[in-house]
Design a protein that fits this description.
Length: 363
């Protein structure tokens, strides 16, 4: 807000600069062209009223300077005044055009936000003693949603989690995300164990790929991390199908990558059909946080080409934060991670990022 208030003074600064130049230069030198830049500079910065006032001020200042120099006449003075009037009208037209485009952009972003909420709804903030936070960071600000996904569901068999990344980008990836989420939400309530859940989910994705045919049938796949928490939250069971392993952060801030005991390919690679993957069980002590993310985090690189390593960097950030006596919430942990990845990669995300943090209450 402070920066915006400063740039609004640019048109006035242009007028002041024109006055100074006109007063310190010979009479034959005119600052009229610089004064004419003031209304144009006001177009993207000020309101319609501000643009009109800038135009009137520019005409008045030019008239005074020309009168002092003795150059105000039909040949130069009036022509410059008419030019300033035309430039002011042009600035008003530019402002109206910019406002119209900004309005269309805001409406499009609102529609995209509604679509994101429908396709990828935010999980509940709490399920029993499990505190949950989720964030989606698109590589393009206008996209809002892409091929990354997360879902947390309370089922008759415990809380189940699905974090995935579908092949491709654009609307094709969004359609695949809808299929993945719909299949998981149905299967998660009916499968008695994770093996059955993954098997049913993969069959559903293969059937959908067969219906769509073409490249989607041959090359469509989804990297998947599927987790299930014990009823007392003492343990978490995980099946990893080609997805970045999650990070377990204990109450002291020590981070451990939960690597799969056996590598397995992503879901729904048509040529491979079903590929069995082991269920790995890990302790989930009180105060621990399970941090899941897609490869938009792990494949972020700095200028030297070094990949981001959350298992090394995040504990350092957490220890620094806890020195101030503050224990960050799951949502704050995600914000810290997002900012650190952005710093590491030098700005804009290099790929979409879906992040999910699940913390067991300490008490």
């Amino acid at each position: 807000m402070v920066q915006q208030s400063k740039v609004q003074w640019i048109p006035a600064g242009v007028i002041v600069l024109a006055v100074v130049i006109d007063l310190v230069t010979p009479t034959a030198v005119t600052s009229a062209p610089l004064i004419m830049a003031a209304p144009v500079a006001a177009a993207p910065l000020l309101s319609l009223r501000g643009i009109i006032l800038t135009g009137i001020a520019s005409m008045a200042v030019h008239a005074c300077l020309a009168w002092v120099d003795g150059t105000f006449g039909w040949h130069r003075g009036l022509a410059n005044q008419l030019t300033l009037l035309a430039v002011t009208l042009l600035a008003v037209f530019i402002k109206r055009t910019l406002d119209s485009q900004a309005g269309r952009t805001r409406r499009a972003l609102r529609v995209a936000a509604v679509a994101q909420g429908a396709v990828l709804p935010r999980p509940p903030a709490r399920l029993g003693d499990l505190h949950i936070a989720a964030r989606y960071v698109p590589a393009e600000d206008e996209a809002m949603i892409g091929g990354d996904l997360y879902v947390v569901q309370d089922t008759p068999y415990g809380t189940r989690v699905f974090v995935g990344d579908v092949r491709g980008k654009g609307m094709g990836a969004v359609r695949a995300v809808c299929v993945d989420l719909g299949a998981f939400r149905y299967v998660a309530d009916h499968a008695e164990d994770l093996e059955e859940l993954v098997r049913s989910l993969e069959q559903a994705l293969l059937r959908e790929g067969g219906r769509r045919g073409g490249v989607e049938q041959e090359e469509g796949f989804t990297t998947a991390l599927i987790a299930e928490f014990a009823s007392d939250l003492s343990a978490v069971r995980i099946i990893n199908r080609g997805h970045p392993p999650p990070l377990l952060i204990d109450a002291q801030g020590t981070a451990t990558l939960l690597e799969p005991s056996q590598e397995a390919p992503p879901l729904a690679i048509g040529a491979l059909d079903h590929w069995p993957a082991p269920v790995d069980t890990f302790p989930f002590p009180p105060g621990a946080t399970l941090l899941c993310y897609t490869d938009g985090v792990t494949e972020s690189r700095d200028t030297a080409g070094v990949f981001y390593d959350a298992s090394v960097r995040l504990p350092l950030l957490l220890r620094h934060r806890r020195r101030s006596g503050e224990d960050p919430t799951p949502a704050q942990v995600l914000e810290m991670l997002i900012r650190d990845v952005r710093r590491h990669s030098g700005g804009r995300p290099q790929d979409d990022q879906a992040l999910l943090a699940l913390r067991r209450a300490a008490g």
